[in-house]
Amino acid sequence: MKPTFYVTTPIYYVNDVPHIGHAYTTVAGDVLARYKRLMGFDVYFLTGSDEHGQKVEKAATTAGETPLELADRVVKRFQALWERLGISNNDFIRTTQERHKNGVSQIFKDILDKGDIYLGEYEDWYCTPCETFWTETQITEGRCPDCNRPVEKLKEESYFFRMSKYQEQLVAHIEANPDFIQPKSKRNEIISFIKEGLRDLSVSRTTFTWGIPVPGNDRHIIYVWFDALTNYITALGYPDESGNYGRYWPVDVHLIGKDILRFHAVYWPTFLMAAGLPLPKKVFAHGWWTVEGQKMSKSLQNVVEPNMLIDKYGVDAVRYFLLREVPFGLDGDFSHTALVQRINSDLANDVGNLLSRSTAMAVKYFGGILPAAAELAEIDQSLKQKTEEMVSIVDKFIDEMAFSKALQAIWEVISAGNKYIDETAPWALAKDPAQSERLATVMYCLLESQRITQCILSAFLPATSEKALASLGWKEAVSKEGLVWGGLTAGTIITKAEALFPRIEE
Ligand code: MSP
């Protein structure tokens, strides 16, 4: 049986339309999912939409729609974008679906029955945009410490989750599992946050109605984060353990942005502890994108719309840029200049040029029929070895979520390929009939190195890699077995590749 791999993105709020921040996590998840599938894992890749809560209710009122009408409309934009971006999710969960609502009610009821959710009274400050409660000491001048927008005082009867009870157990878990929260800097932040003391958490509201009612008391609506986090198991059919839940839970990694780490690394694990369910293996928080040096915001009108980028630069250029430009886990800046630079140098010049040069030579010198390699010279051996080593280097970096390092390792082989052409000078070999065997070996090594590179790249640049592998005559599905040198056989038909990435003239 194949080993399983379960990866999730956050579920996106439907009160906002998709932007590059959303595309970022989703593309990262997709690369991971495609890579693990390629390596022989039984992958489940989940994304979806967060449709309940006051924030969505307010947005719907403003738009003159019901919350569900708003959700139905906006969710299509997310789904259409994921399709354009080549996202290979296995499932898309909407929190308004019955399967989700049932699972949430069930887990809430379980924790209630165990006594870790109880009815009490609440008085605190609430930030609606963040859907977060703050204590008197946390806020400054009536503003939210996270987003600096005004908070409002809320007093209401509320169900509370006994989060305080799990403080020690959670710290112990984090300390015993160094990889549980990543990157490391974020892990330390979370540990200090928990050690300041966990308070019981209000997990219901009575001030609005758009959500899942508390089982047995439908005056109360379940807190939107309790509802949302549970998507990671309701999508697997929880509480039914016989299907996907039994197969894929606990999740291998929750990919999230740094702003929602506390929910994933404190709230969610303690909910699971209370319900007696296994904890996620890893929560990885990536950084935030600014745009041309500024925070991305509607009011600044600088929100980067992914569809516009795809129209202008192509889907794989966008995927590449997002993962190559900034180490996953750090903040980064988006600019058109940086994107165009990446396209022209890394994509058009390096990978695109290498493929078109080499396939053109195979057509010119061998009529497009791949020759067999004779004995490898030192320079050929070195290209072969670099290619083979890259496969394990990439594997290690992907496991660390170091996508940009993985791409750099791939690009080292691409550069080595371009250098190999310059050094072996096939055009000179072609002039000398006595060198025909040497020329054949050079062509073979050049194309075989790219075949392996393109198989690995299929996780990052699926559309490009498909074209490249077609011109390399590789008809098999990409797989771990295919990452071994010697896959291309003599006689394979090579066709001249069109430019994979046209240069962008600004
Ligand atoms: N609905 C919640 C998540 C619930 S998960 C159980 C939510 N949704 S969101 O739509 O507001 O944000 C989703 C993700 O987008 C978050 O991971 C957030 O970090 C990410 N980003 C939003 N703006 C971003 C940038 N400018 N840059 C990078 N990621 C950003 O939170």
Describe the structure.
It contains 18 helices and 16 strands. It has 506 residues and is of the alpha/beta class. The protein has a domain of 148 residues: Isoleucyl-tRNA Synthetase, Domain 1 (Orthogonal Bundle), CATH 1.10.730. A 6-stranded parallel beta sheet has the order 3-2-1-12-13-7, with helices on both faces. Strands 5-4-6-8 form a 4-stranded antiparallel beta sheet. Strand 10 and strand 11 form a beta hairpin. Helix 13 runs antiparallel to helix 17 and helix 15 runs antiparallel to helix 17. The mean pLDDT is 96. Bound molecules: 5'-O-[(L-methionyl)-sulphamoyl]adenosine. 5'-O-[(L-methionyl)-sulphamoyl]adenosine binds next to strand 1, helix 1, helix 7 and strand 12.
Question: What is the overall pLDDT average?
Answer: 96
Query: What would you call the structural class?
Result: alpha/beta
Q: Uncertain segments of ≥5 residues (pLDDT<50)?
A: none
CATH superfamily of the domain at 336-483: Isoleucyl-tRNA Synthetase, Domain 1
Which ligands appear in the coordinates? 5'-O-[(L-methionyl)-sulphamoyl]adenosine
- Classify the fold: give the CATH topology of the domain at 336-483: Isoleucyl-tRNA Synthetase, Domain 1
Number of helices: 18
Beta-strand fraction estimate:
15-25%
The strands making up the biggest β-sheet line up spatially as 3-2-1-12-13-7
What overall geometry do the principal axes of the alpha carbons give? elongated
Number of strands: 16
Spatial extent as radius of gyration:
26 Å
Looking at the overall shape, the CATH architecture of the domain at 336-483 is: Orthogonal Bundle
Tell me the helix content. Answer: 40-55%
How far is the first residue's CA from the last residue's CA?
A: 51 Å
CATH class label of the domain at 336-483 = Mainly Alpha
Taking the sheet with the most strands, its summary is: 6 strands, parallel
